[in-house]
Design brief:
This protein is an alpha/beta fold. The chain has helices at residues 15-25, 84-95, 120-126, 131-142, 149-157; strands spanning 8-11, 29-36, 48-55, 58-64, 76-81, 100-101, 106-108, 114-119. The chain folds into 2 domains: 1-69, Signal recognition particle alu RNA binding heterodimer, srp9/1 (2-Layer Sandwich); 71-158, 2,3-Dihydroxybiphenyl 1,2-Dioxygenase, domain 1, CATH 3.10.180.10. It is 32% helix and 28% strand. The strands form 2 sheets. The protein has a 4-stranded mixed β-sheet with strand order 1-4-3-2, covered by helices on one side. It has a 4-stranded mixed β-sheet with strand order 5-8-7-6.
Length: 158
Amino acid sequence: MSDKITPFLWFNDNAEEAIDFYRSVFKNAKTYNVTRYGEGAPFPKGTLMSATFELEGQRFMALNAGPHFKFNEAVSFFVDCETQEEVDELWEKLTADGGEPGRCGWLKDKFGLSWQIVPRILGELMADEDPRKAQNVTQAMLRMDKIDIQTLKEAYSK
């Protein structure tokens, strides 16, 4: 069964490297439908043209098509994390080798793709019926780069 809507990622010439990188970051990852450029193409014969890959059940399509378009923060991938260990691991891996940490759980990986690495508890605490508690959590989160669950819980308990 295929997804009705699949994010499509345009890479200059490093789609295969990106797919391999994402597959190393996420535990549940697969690659499907790989096509390669042939003779007379704008890339050397055998270079990956496109591929469909899956990360944690979400399918993506990647294309090597030249330097015409770049990723920007208008689109990001939100990763729902259950534990601080998962937040820490994904943050470390996605910011490695040229990735850039951002504010409030956002980061850019070495390919320029934006991610939000967010513990599930953040949304739960921010949605609390007590506006003071929710505001305390929000203010704590706004001071963070990588989200720290213990700090959120401390802010909630004030």
